[in-house]
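cron nightly-structures :: item 1 of 1
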Amino acid sequence: MTFKILLDLAWRYWHWAVISLLVVIIIALSVVYAQRGHAIDNIKVQHELVLATERADYEARARQIEHQNYQGVIDAVNQSTIRQKQIADKYDSVVVINDSLSDSITNIETSLINANRAAVIDYTKSVNGLFTECTGRYLEMAKNAAREQEEARRLRDAWPTR
């Protein structure tokens, strides 16, 4: 009998049952929608965190590369300074040797005025050997200068531009 009463009440108030069911469905969908909104917000926050991390990593790498380039410039300047000092030292010694050689040639010239023909021939051979050696040294110096110029050009071309 109780079942019959319930069935009779359900038949009489069926529209309220449908409305109640629809309210429950609407509430369930609202909860699901709110959860999806929170999930989307969480994804946005995670994306912003990933972007911030990548930006920080990029800036750190850029600073590291800039530091390496700066260190490379400092090393190049230091090496250039050392080479310039070596060149200056070699130049000074060459000037001293050249002055000594000029004095020796002047002394030989004065002594050759009264010398015999064999002494003049020996002197000519010595001067010829000296000129040959000077020519060789000059060519070697030109080769070194060309190599240094090529190295400077290569460094200039390899250096990053801003």
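cron nightly-structures :: done
Residues 14-112 form the longest helix (99 residues).
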